[in-house]
Amino acid sequence: MVRKISFVVSMILMVCFSLPLFAGGQTETAAVETIKLGFIGPMTGDYANYGQLISKGAQLAIDEKNATGGIAGKVKIQLIIEDSEGNPEKGLAGIEKLSSSDKIVALIGPVFTGVSFAVGERVQVEGILMVTPSGTHADITNIGDYVFRTVPSDGLQGEVAGNYFYEVLGVRNLGVLYIKNDYSQGLYEGTKASFEARGGKVTIAETGQIGDKDFKTQLTKIKAAAPDAIYIPNYTAEMAQILEQASQLGLNIPFLSSDGFSNPEIYDLAGAYTDGVIYVGPTKVAESDASKAFVDKYTKTYGFAPDSFATNAYDAAYVLFDALEKVYKASGKFDRKAVRDAFAATKDFLGVNGKINFAENGDLVAYQGLYKVEGTTPKYLGAYTVVDGKLVEVK
Amino acid sequence: MGSWAEFFQHLMNGLTLGGIYALIALGYTMVYGILKFINFAHGDILMMGSYIGLFVYNAIRGELLGFWTIIAFFLSMLVGMMFSAILGMAIEKIAYKPLRKATRLAPLLSAIGVSFILSNLAAWMWGTKSKKLEYPFDNSPIHLGDIAVTPHQIMILVVVVVMMVALKLFIDRSRLGKAMRATSLDQDTAKLMGIKVDRIIAITFAIGSALAATAGFLIALEIKVYPSMGTMTGLKAFVAAVVGGIGNISGAMVGGILLGLIETFGVALLGIPYALRDTIAFIILIIILLVKPEGLLGKAEKEKV
Amino acid sequence: MLNFILLIFIYSGIYALMAMGQNVITGYVGLLSLCQAGFFAIGSYATAILSVSYGWNFWLTVPIAGLLAALAGIIIGLPTLRLKGDYLAIATLGFGEIIRNIINNWDSLTGGPMGIKRIPMASIFGYTINPFDKWAFLGMVWIFVLLGYLFFKRLARSRIGRALEAIREDEIAASSMGINTTKYKVWAFALGAFAAGVAGSLQAVFTLSVTPGPFTFMVSIMVLCMVVLGGMGNFIAVILGAFLIQFISYFPQLVGLSNVIPPQFKQILFGLILVVMMIWRPQGILGRAPRMSISGIRRKKRTTSNGGESGDTIQGGSR
Amino acid sequence: MTLLETQKLTRAYGGVVAVSEVDFEVEQGLITGLIGPNGAGKTTLFNNITGLDVPTSGTVQFKGKNITGKNAHTICRMGIARTFQNIRLFKELTVLENVMLGRHFKVGRSASTGRLATALKSFFSMEEEESIMREHALKWLSFFHLEHLVDELAKNLPYGHQRELEIARALATEPSLLFLDEPAAGMNPQETDALMKTIRKIRSLGITVVLIEHDMKLVMNICDTITVLNYGQNIAQGTPSQIKRNPLVVEAYLGKEDA
Asked: Which residues of A touch C244 (CB under 8 A)?
């Protein structure tokens, strides 16, 4: 018994401690020719789709950059993707591995808010730049000065949404159907606050459970409550279900949505049911060729179109390249602190989503775009932001 | 709860949901009846069958909606069912059969292992994006007063009823069905009576898996096809099977329908927040188990002292 | 690299605590419970809420976390212990999901899906046990594991442990021997839950934020796998099982393959290991602990040639 | 003196009445036999007395106290022990542990200290407690000459020894009344003879014995008094010689053979 245990344990220990010899060794010597960037997101499990989609945005940027020779034309970039399964426990393991065995220079991700908080604390201590393309919770960037994002926070989106619904669309009684996850609930709370501050009223707020596919019960109740419009700030799959089932129930109330709607997958899944939906999404301040080129290239490479989060990841990668190049040109190496400083100093970087600037706390200085779906094509309505509680259209 | 119309709307929604649960629960209950273990991979067999059905349907379906499309739909469903049946039998042979004499936990964990393998294999081979299964007919709702009923709901109810009646007749009347019941009562005695127990078990798995594929294909029209589609639905269906009395075919049907209705009306009537729907299901489960531990239609098994 | 290995050891320790609790319930009393995730969640949230909202010291929250989980264990145990085998499994699984559901929906207390952030780190005598300082944290976790091990080991060797095993072997005979089976089953549940609650507490000060998402029934199943894989009724084996499962799940990352192979392969590998293991060695790697002989000297190893049948009985409704 | 007595004890399962208004008495110090054809309700009567089953109606009095419907473990603690028709040993535990379990409730209970204190004490002074239990258990094992098998797993014992072990385990609870459910079932004549001696020895310890048995030679040989059940009813009671001559009993047994 004792022999058996000690045999098993010693075998495991041997394997463990011999691993660094061949796995970790190469990074030290190869550091100059390639640098590593990390990515953390759910690659398996219920939300794997988001991890897959968003990581491809970052991967595409890196492939493009490497095709031109890499950073400053000579340092190749490698993206190391770690699976978080949407679980902070696994996310922490991911950052630990990226930080200690891959020695990454910066991290793109994590995808979800919950994991972002756990990982954010970690990168702050380690001094690794983290840019989340999709962690929308208002507090994420407050973790520290190493945490940034290329997605507008819930706060801004909620403010624009609430004000726009009230002021421009003239909605007074709002119905809401949101899922009890951090993304949906964050947007619901933000929107509700600004909408009710203007004098509107959320007359009915129904919830759903993560993984639910059947929303007929809630929709039946909402139908009975007859609000002016229904706000559905959810992920693509759920929204597709909601729209389809609403039409089955003969619900004739306009739908309003969030940046989750910017995923073109919605048109595959919900088809004609998307007609008439108005949603808050990324801006197109500088409607550029870059934007169109990106969408085309992404679609061509992976067989499906990018969503706004993948776009944010793509932008994050390019802003990062810019910072890396500056640091490399100045010092010939990639100091993590210097990379962070260069990244924070980004000014008017022209990305696919338009001009990118970061606020003091690491938030994206952003506006929100508004779209209305006609048939199955989103039509751009303009960009908005909120200044001192007032909705302002950005020209 | 507003009006009668709303009531009937909920009733319709609850019945279709319950019908699906019942169909999946049948597979659980059949396997449990014979082997006394929870086939955790049942939900994943459902998912695999739905994928296969989807591929076949997309390949043979014409452009226009019409009679051929509906035939194609059912043909694809049949292929999916057959695939699932074979998959179910294969899994039984590889992962469960060697464990027949082992402890009760061994096949349970083996089933969990199979579930991991199947769902991740699907994600790897076919991607994590949801795949849409096009309706073979125009699914605009039919309005009966204020109640909206979709052709899809009607189809679910019809298919579910047909499947259940067929299964019930098969189990009660046919020779094979009788052999199944004998096997579930006492394997050793069944063997002595000349029943090929291994074959019966394989057939049970085949039928259960085929029913799962049917349920999967039917709901896929609405919920789409994706790697984890079977997980939660499967779990709920299992709850339904237990509520009805696991191992009991009629129990699975009753349990499934009941669970669907309770979930729908619990939210609608009692004003319980929808997000607590699963909680209602599980609380009902626990209450039923406490009042009648063998399930609604199950037989109490008294341990002989 | 070293840090990553230490992290695996930390997780192993946290899960080992939970697995030891599960071992009391499943390995000793033979009850198939699938609720460790729920108790784990209660422990995590107890520490998170008490330290964030009420400013408690971590060390004070640990026993409370354990006790609250134990209380939940008793609440769950009392009504459901009449159930047997798979019925108990599904009822406890249901309870685990209920706990998660409540946490996800009780926004005012738990923050709902947003969870609770910024949990203060544990500290002792003014020294902060920073989760980023792996050695210190590892030490803390494994001291808990050691304490748990010593406690449970002693419990198992005492008349109480023997009574628990008697209940597993034959509940009717046990009660006819004057053993209050209900009381012992509830206590076993409470102890198992206590261990999971403490594990949750440690998890909270490691991740420094809690959200309801991770506490799914998959956690309970993982913990059960640890117990079965190591060897039911054997606390050392269970700790080994916890470590092995963590090791397997991080193996691709350890050898630097996680970026090369598709991410699903890790899970497929895990599934394969479960199936193969159950076919090849259903009694677990080490099997049940050998019985003490009268002189206290370890007796010759038990015959485990046809392993599976050797008594890892779970109370079954119908056999 | 009457040690145990049932009054109009009835146990019905749905429509089936297994035991019907049975008055059954056990005199202290005697060996009482309980016989009857298969399905007569003997084991059901045992179960209802020992708390494994709850009577539909009627009462059970033990030492003048009403014990109807009490838990099995409570009844055991009051001094009634039993064995089972189909041996119920703790198969994966050793012989010694099986017997020690019979002593389980004897230790760790203290009138002077509270429950928590007792629990803590038994946790920390385990060795002392264990050695006391072990000594007692060994005493009972040597009673059956099983000392050489202490470390064997119960399941590995030959059948006859398993029966003996089960009785030893019951005796370890120090009962004043011992119920034996078909103790000689499956034994060869030599083993049955040994069993008879053992039962007499048990009585000589001052323990009252009640046994269900089909082996008439054994019953007639050692029982002081016999009760006969048929179709759940008490049809006769008396000394072995009285029972042998009782026409109802003869009919019950012969009638069964006719059928």
From this structure: 12
pLDDT of residue B59: 92
DSSP A273: G
Q: Name the amino acid, one letter, at D250.
A: V
Residue B136 C-beta-side C-alpha neighbours within 13 Å: 22
Per-residue buried b or exposed e for C191-222, using 16+ beta carbons within 10 Å of the residue's own CB: bbbbbbbbbbbbbbbbbbbbbbbbbbbbbbbb
Read off the pLDDT of each residue in A376-395 and give the average, rounded to a whole number.
87
Q: Are B241 and B32 in contact (CB under 8 A)?
A: yes
| Shared-domain flag, residues A77 and A205 | no
Give mean pLDDT, residues A120-128: 91
Give me the number of domains chain C comprises: 2
- Highest mean predicted confidence (pLDDT) among A277-281, A305-309, C156-160, C250-254: A277-281
Q: What is the DSSP string of A22-78?
A: HHTHHHHHTTTTEEEEEEEE--SSTTHHHHHHHHHHHHHHHHHHHHTTSBTTTBEEE
pLDDT tens-digit profile of A252-283? 899 999 988 988 889 988 888 999 999 998 88
H-run or E-run covering C243: helix C235-254
A315: number of Cβ within 10 Å: 28
CB contact under 8 A, D93 and C165: yes
| 192-231 in chain C: CB under 8 A from chain A | 203, 206-209, 211, 213-214
Whether B143 contacts chain A with CB within 8 A: yes
Q: How far is C135 from chain B (nearest CA, A)?
A: 33
Task: Give the Cβ contact number of residue C290 at 10 Å.
Answer: 14
The dihedral sign for the CA sequence B282, B286, B287, B292: positive
DSSP code at position A105: S
Percentage of chain B surpassing pLDDT 70?
Answer: 96
Structural domain count of chain A: 2
Nearest to A59 by CA among A326, A290, A294: A294
- Give the model confidence (pLDDT) of A200-258 as tens digits: 999 999 988 888 888 888 898 899 899 999 999 999 989 999 999 998 888 889 999 99
Both C281 and C304 in one domain: the answer is no
- Structural domain including C319 reads 294-319
**Gap between the Cα atoms of C48 and C247, Å rounded:** 27
Say if residue A376 is in the same domain as residue A330: no
Task: Examine the domain organization and report whether C21 and C108 are in the same domain.
Answer: yes
| CA A115/CA A183 separation, integer angstroms | 12
Q: Measured between alpha carbons, how far is B179 from B167 in angstroms, rounded to an integer?
A: 14
Confidence of residue D75 (pLDDT cuts 50, 70, 90): very high
Distance CA C219, CA C124 (A): 30
SS (H, E, C) B196-228: CHHHHHHHHHHHHHHHHHHHHHHHHHHHCECCC
Q: Look at chain A and count its residues.
A: 395
Question: In which domain, by residue range, is A208 found?
Answer: 155-281+369-394
- Predicted model pTM: 0.90
- The predicted-structure confidence for B271-297, as pLDDT tens digits, reads as follows 677 767 777 777 877 888 778 877 888
The answer to whether residue C102 neighbours chain A at the CB level (below 8 Å) is: no
- The C-alpha torsion from B108 through B111 and B113 to B114, rounded to 10°, is 180
Q: What average pLDDT does range B86-90 have in this prediction?
A: 96
Look at domain D1-79+175-259 and name its CATH class.
alpha beta
